[in-house]
Specification:
- The mean pLDDT is 78.
- The protein has helices spanning 2-49, 64-76, 88-99, 104-107, 127-138, 150-191, 194-202, 207-243, 253-284; strands at residues 53-58, 80-86, 115-120, 143-147.
- With 292 residues, it is of the alpha+beta class.
- Strands 2-3-1-4 form a four-stranded antiparallel β-sheet.
Length: 292
């Protein structure tokens, strides 16, 4: 009978520890995912910005040497990510694919122009910067026109700012929720042992002596939960990097190490503080109040 009761108590204790670890791991995982999103917000924004292109249309009278020199100078410019020459024939073929028919047969000639598509570095994707770049390129005598989608660029920059703002707000809210949820799990764990705490206090044990094993146990649970969350985050990050290699999610190991270290320390600090507050609360309660 005694062995059966002991096994029951042991299973109950393990179940309690498992629920605490799971709660900590889930909360820290969500917090870590949000941290990854915060760290990669700039990368995501830069990725979309670098899809914006300036089209430099060339006059038919432009010489091949002039075109090559312009392309090379644009490719070497600080503001350029890539510069690709698009012949009028290639442009006509691409346009025919888009509309689903060969428009050259109706017109009898190719009205399109040779062009150079310039993709900019993200830092230069703003209305003012692009306008200065376009004006500078348009000074060439053999350049017919420099075209870009100004409304799209303005909308893109506005959405990036709006997205960054809301991500910061969400980060603060999720951090608060993480603290409250972990604190609630720890308090429930300590609550189940409130009579043990009061019994130890009644036989003369000091508050520090009583708190120590509870805090150490919670810290170990926090460490285990943090490690599980970090492993899950690493797996998610690895999978996302395989699916979207252009984002370079694993290209900054220092920031990732700081994030993982921050998650690990967060799990320890929150569990330590929560356990300290919870045990202190039950230590200060009267015996009669333990039943409520």
């Amino acid at each position: 009978m005694s062995n059966s009761f002991e096994r029951y108590q042991k299973r109950k204790l393990i179940s309690s520890y498992f629920s605490v670890i799971l709660s900590i791991a889930l909360v820290l995982f969500l917090l870590g995912v949000l941290g990854l999103l915060v760290l990669n917000t700039k990368k995501l924004a830069d990725h979309f910005k670098e899809q914006v292109a300036i089209s430099v249309f060339l006059k038919d009278s432009a010489k091949e040497v002039e075109i090559n020199q312009l392309q090379k100078s644009l490719a070497m410019a600080d503001y350029t990510r890539s510069a690709e020459f698009v012949s009028k024939d290639d442009a006509a073929e691409e346009h025919s694919k888009e509309i689903g028919e060969n428009f050259l047969e109706f017109l009898g000639y190719n009205p399109l122009q040779n062009s150079i598509d310039v993709h900019l570095n993200a830092a230069y994707v703003s209305t003012d910067s692009i306008q200065k770049i376009a004006d500078h390129i348009a000074e060439k005598d053999f350049v017919a026109e420099v075209a870009y989608d100004s409304p799209l660029i303005s909308l893109l920059n506005e959405n990036v700012k709006r997205m960054s703002f809301w991500i910061l707000i969400a980060s603060g809210v999720f951090t608060l929720i993480a603290v409250l949820l972990i604190n609630s799990s720890i308090r429930l764990s300590v609550y189940s042992k409130r009579f043990i705490i009061k019994t130890m206090q009644m036989v003369g044990a000091t508050k520090r002596f009583i708190r120590r094993p509870f805090i150490w146990k919670s810290i170990k649970l926090g460490m285990v939960g943090s490690l599980i969350a970090i492993i899950a985050m690493g797996s998610l990050l690895y999978y996302a990097d395989i699916r979207f290699p252009q984002l370079g999610l694993l290209s900054d190991p220092i920031h990732l190490a700081i994030l993982f270290g921050g998650i690990f320390l967060t799990g320890i600090v929150i569990t330590w503080i929560s356990t300290y507050i919870a045990t202190q609360r039950f230590l200060n309660l009267r015996t009669d109040d333990l039943y409520y």
